[in-house]
């Protein structure tokens, strides 16, 4: 299940890897975003399993508590290509589990150190990049509401939000530098929100700027759709899939 392209890594699903012309690119940030239940973590686990099986190292920053060894076991059991046990795979996966935006900053600060220590790091995953960021924004707004003067609240809120956005931008800049310097694939997941009947990615322009590949996930009539919204050379395209024991599987009856 190695990618046939030297500057790409396999996604964990042959059809999806082919759809991306060889898989996730090594020297950029790829962001997969969509509502809950569309399989974002499945994409992360599949890519992690492949790299760990190949004896490459994976750094997995899990901000939502979505990483499951049992789910990893399901994925590798459903595919006879895997030879390693979940325990053996986990020896190649460094799992970091921040529970606050401050801890997320600390996890990012460890990245260069861990890359030097582990050496054969081929994949960094952040699942998800904006969950704790979003929580931090909510805490700021709640704390400021307890103050008396409305104008002071608005001004302080602007300042705090600017600082948090700047911190998120620094994290993405750091990921981008690591991807380019060490030729590592970076896979990030993100949440969405609805505004005026339109779906927007949390973090907005910050994520769009730093991500060279954007894949939107959504559900239509009980079928999941991946939409390639941004890529360095591929056109916009769609991939229909279902979630299964092996992670995802292509749905073949959808016409494109």
Explained architecture:
There is one protein chain. With 256 residues, the chain is α/β, with parallel strands linked by helices. It has a single domain, classed as Rossmann fold (3-Layer(aba) Sandwich), CATH 3.40.50. It contains 8 helices and 13 strands. The chain has helices at 14-19, 40-53, 69-77, 86-90, 101-118, 131-145, 150-182, 205-210, and strands at 8-9, 24-25, 29-33, 57-62, 93-96, 121-127, 185-190, 192-195, 198-201, 213-220, 223-230, 238-244, 247-250. The protein has a 9-stranded mixed sheet, sandwiched between helices. A two-stranded antiparallel sheet has the order 1-2. Strands 8-9 form a two-stranded antiparallel ribbon. Strand 10 and strand 11 form a beta hairpin. Helix 2 crosses helix 3 (69-77), helix 5 (101-118) packs parallel to helix 7 (150-182) and helix 6 (131-145) packs antiparallel against helix 7 (150-182).
List the helices and strands and how they pair.
Elements: E1 8-9, H1 14-19, E2 24-25, E3 29-33, H2 40-53, E4 57-62, H3 69-77, H4 86-90, E5 93-96, H5 101-118, E6 121-127, H6 131-145, H7 150-182, E7 185-190, E8 192-195, E9 198-201, H8 205-210, E10 213-220, E11 223-230, E12 238-244, E13 247-250
Parallel strand pairs: 3-7, 3-10, 4-5, 4-6, 6-7
Antiparallel strand pairs: 1-2, 8-9, 10-11, 11-12, 12-13
Helix pairs in contact: 2-3, 5-7, 6-7
Summary?
This protein has 256 residues and is an alpha/beta fold. 41% of the residues lie in helices and 26% in strands.
